[in-house]
Amino acid sequence: xxxxxxxxxxxxxxxxxxxxxxxxxLIGEFIRGHLRQTGFERVVLGLSGGxxxxxxxxxxxxxxxxxxxxxxxxPYRTSAAESAADAQEVxxxxxxxxxxxxxxxxxxxxxxxxxxGESAAGQPDRGRVGNFAARARMAVLYxxxxxxxGLVAGTGNKTEALLGYTTIYGxxxxxxxxxxxxxxxxxRQLAADMGVPAAILRKAPxxxxxxxxxxxxxxxxxxxxxxxxxxxxxDRRRTDGQLVEMGFAQALISRVQHLAAASEYKRxxxxxxxxxxxxxxxxxxxxxxxxx
Length: 292
Hints:
- The protein is mainly α.
- Helices cover 49% and strands 5% of the residues.
- The termini are far apart.
């Protein structure tokens, strides 16, 4: 089923409409196939209360059953109360086990120690705290994956990945990512099709890094605008001249191209200096199978 733009509670560029039935089937097969390949049966997910992680929770539960999904809520002291409430509603609707682990002591404890050894006085900037919080959350998720005996699912979308709007080894770290090839607009479309609560679909996307923070406010661009440009620039390989003819401003094109180029290192595994005939991650790329 492909949802019509008028049925959705937000702007969806027409060229980004997807067949949601096909997307659900392919992502479900991907989830089950990756678990079989690695020898795991369970999944761990950091649930923020936003649409991306909510959609992944619905997709994983549909693919392998809610009982095999552990959703972990990881609030910081500045996290919005509504984020926790939305995450709890997703847990109840999906019917999966959940845990709440506050990361305030981890983050604040680190900065109290770090600032005590630094010459500069004052508090760390909020971007620095937000990045550390994202990495602290991922550290907790990987620890929880040990006791749950499951793989950590990623929740980053294609828009964030291409723009570099992600914390390396933080929210972009995972064992596999079911929605990494969906633009934010498409995430919303698929989430609406799967029954993610309307309040989550309608609220302004936010990494919840500090009070009042929103993704679009920080980037200075709407997701609909960014997604359209990225689609024609990346997927359809249009030139700058063609993009300008389509109505995109050259300044916007240049800015998005710069963001994509500058963040390429976040999308790749760390480069390895090749010295031998077989290098892990370069030309030693056997299919992953669990040892017998």
